[in-house]
């Protein structure tokens, strides 16, 4: 009997948070450190299953694990967030073991609560770093893919600018452009002999629907290919509707292309040989924002 106060002194002197519960799971006693940490009385802590002591998101899992331990006698082992006296939640690991009598019946549960907030934060930081690393690798692969696409178009531009036979070059490379860019239309436009209009020199587009034809003429001023030809700068439209302000030569035709036609996005590149450029190559896609990550 005289050992009971000594045991209480020892338990209260331990740095951890300690509690005991009856065989039925009712909180029986707690040490002084636990009372001070939670800022609650023993009676208030006895209602932990329905109070805010455990974070609401963690409570169902913790309660289920506690019921299973009481029914089976298996150790209680959970991680959940607990609310301290300052109304701040911190992560704790709670480990409970049953105490048995000489006949093996459970007479009490002894529980140790260990603060693992620092460990949880370190794990979360590591998870974010791993996620950032994976995202960085993914973006690097996409960037390399986009560079390969642009390199292919620039190769076409250089070969055209070297006065090679346009149709021969176009036929040799257009299918490769369509495969790598996963695009539906590849075309070349060059200024007409009058230098006032752009002529759709060649088209690789099996499903033209009659909208785009080789030999079609567009004014240099007021067309997408004309704008790229004059500026010698690439133009990327995640949605072709973004080009309404540029295409002023035939608004009705442009509405047919963007609203009724097969194209939703496009990438237009100048055939470089000076300013203005030698012409304009284009790759269009039937899906909107296909070129949203292009680096051209």
From TrEMBL:
Top EC class of this enzyme: transferase
Matching InterPro entries: GAF-like_dom_sf, PAC, PAS, PAS-assoc_C, PAS-like_dom_sf, PAS_fold_3, Sensor_kinase/Photoreceptor
Keywords: Kinase, Phosphoprotein, Transferase
GO-annotated molecular function: protein histidine kinase activity
Catalytic activity: ATP + protein L-histidine = ADP + protein N-phospho-L-histidine
Domain PAC: 76-128
Domain PAS: 3-73
Xref: Gene3D superfamilies: 3.30.450.40, PAS domain
EC number: 2.7.13.3
CDD domains from the UniProt entry: PAS (cd00130)
Protein name: histidine kinase
């Amino acid at each position: 009997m005289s050992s009971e106060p000594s045991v209480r002194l020892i338990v209260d002197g331990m740095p951890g948070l300690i509690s005991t519960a009856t065989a039925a799971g009712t909180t029986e006693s707690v040490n002084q450190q636990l009372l001070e940490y939670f800022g609650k009385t023993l009676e208030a802590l006895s209602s932990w299953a329905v109070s805010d002591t455990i974070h609401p998101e963690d409570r169902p899992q913790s309660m289920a694990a506690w019921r299973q331990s009481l029914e089976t006698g298996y150790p209680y082992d959970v991680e959940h967030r607990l609310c301290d006296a300052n109304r701040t939640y911190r992560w704790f690991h709670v480990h409970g073991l049953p105490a048995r009598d000489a006949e093996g019946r459970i007479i009490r549960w002894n529980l140790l609560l260990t603060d693992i907030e620092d460990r949880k934060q370190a794990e979360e930081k590591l998870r974010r770093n791993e996620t950032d690393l994976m995202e960085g690798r993914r973006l690097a692969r996409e960037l390399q893919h986009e560079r390969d696409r642009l390199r292919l178009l620039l190769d076409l531009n250089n070969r055209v600018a070297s006065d090679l036979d346009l149709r021969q070059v176009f036929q040799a490379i257009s299918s490769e452009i369509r495969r790598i860019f996963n695009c539906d239309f590849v075309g070349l436009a060059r200024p007409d002999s009058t230098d006032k209009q752009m002529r759709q020199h060649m088209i690789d587009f099996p499903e033209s629907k009659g909208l785009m034809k080789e030999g079609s003429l567009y004014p240099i001023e007021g067309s997408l290919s004309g704008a790229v030809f004059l500026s010698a700068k690439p133009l990327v439209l995640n949605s072709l509707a973004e080009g309404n302000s540029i295409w002023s030569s035939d608004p009705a035709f442009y509405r047919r292309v963007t609203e009724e036609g097969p194209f939703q996005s496009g990438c237009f590149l100048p055939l470089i040989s000076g300013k203005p450029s030698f012409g304009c190559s284009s790759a269009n896609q039937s899906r909107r924002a296909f070129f949203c990550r292009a680096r051209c």
